[in-house]
Amino acid sequence: MSRRVVVTGIGWITPLGHDIEQTWRRVLNGESGVSPTMIFDAKTFPTTFSSQVKDFDLKKYLSPEEYEEHKSVSRQAGFAVAAAKMAWKNAGLDQFGALDRTHAGIYLGGGEGPLDFGNFAKAAIEGWDYETNHLDSKRWAEVAAACLHAETEAEQDPNMAAGHISTLFGLEGPSFNTLTACAASTQAIGEATNMIRYGDADVMISGGCHSMIHPLGVTGFNLLTALSNRNDSPTTASRPFDRTRDGFVLGEGAGMLILEELSHAQKRGATILAEIVGYGSTADAFRITDIHEDARGGIAAMRMAIQDAGVSLTDIDYISAHGTGTAENDKIETKAIRGVFGDHAPNVPISSVKSMMGHLIAAAGACELITCILAIRDQVLPPTTNYENPDPLCDLDYIPNQKREANVRTCLSNSFGFGGQNDTLVIRSFE
Amino acid sequence: MPDLAASFANEGTEAIMNKKRVVITGLGVATPVGIGIDETFDALVEKKSGVRRIEAFDPSSFASQVGGEIHELNVGDFIFKKYKRLAKVMARDIELAVAAAYLAIRDGGLKSKCLVERGEADAVNIDSTRFGANIGAGLICADLSELAEALSKAAENPEDRGNRRFSLSKWGEAMRNLTPLWLLKFLPNMLACHVTIVHDCQAPSNTITCGEASSHLAIGEAFRTIQRGAADICICGGAESKINPMALLRPALWGRMATNRNDAPAQACRPFDSDRGGMVVGEGGGLLILEEYEHAKARGAKIYGEVCGFGASQNNSNWFKPQADGRALRIAAEKAMADAGVKTDEIDVLNPFGVGTREHDAGEAAAIRTMFGARTSQIPVIATKGAIGNNGAGSGAIDIAVVVKAMERGVAPPSLNTDTLDPDCDINVIRNDPIDLRAKTALTFAGAMSGGQTGALVIRRIES
Question: For the complex shown, is ipTM > 0.85?
Answer without folding.
Answer: yes
